[in-house]
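Write out the 3D structure for:
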Amino acid sequence: MEKDKYSAYVTSIEEQCKDLTVETVHKLGEGWMSMVLKINEEWAFRFAKNQRASDDLDKEARILPSLSSCISAAVPRFKYYGRQKDGLAFAGYRLLPGEILMENSIHSFNEKERKEFIIHLSEFIKELRAFPVKQAKANGVPEQDLHSFYSRLQQEVEKDIFPLMNSSLQKYISSCFQDYLHHPRYAEYTPSPIHGDLSMDHLLIDPETFRITGVIDFGDLAISDPDFEYRYILEECGKSFLQSLLSIMGEQNIDDILKKVAFFVTFDHLQYILEGIRRKNNSWIQEGLEEIECEMNKEK
């Protein structure tokens, strides 16, 4: 039985959520950060698997009540919150309305559906950006200094990844860091709140209207370069989709933004390789290297 399979998680729920009797359990998703279970076909429970994920849940518990009043789409409202036996956090909230998108769902949309979805996506991003930075900081939302972060990443990459690359890939990566870190306008932005993990599978939509009905997984919420929000959108939905979104957002210098976001995607692949090295996961390393080589070949 599924309930027996996830008995440790069920025990945490039953011991700390006294008004909830667990009758059915199904896995909604699992990554190296969290396990997510559907309870009684009504609740989503997220269980942190490491300290970083636990800290992210703590951050969400603080900020989501305030954020929910500023966002048109539904966001998780934690009714249940507790600690697992290892001290890591877990949280439970009612399932949000709508259907979760898959990473490649957008490619099946027709032109009208695509346009409608982009309009609602732009509305969510604008609403989140409008949330007061001071209030976000007061609730523990961190500010990201991307320039410093990517300067450190470059050092790690040269030390740990360059030995795995041929000279062409090394030159390509060096030029990416050089062009990003020394671009005169990339550091000129007004920091704003961003979701930080805006992949398609964190969005729920009404399949009839293509309106965004819910947004989940705010664990990477940060105060950062607003353009950093677009990196998964570019990677999953493509350049033309992001161009349309940027246009509807009223962004200026769209070509510059597209180039910057492409750097963010490349740097994400490098972080993926580094994580593969740390975990001794050769498939992650190989996958990341292939993605970067594919990018380099497209630039030629």
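The first strand starts at residue 25 and ends at 30.
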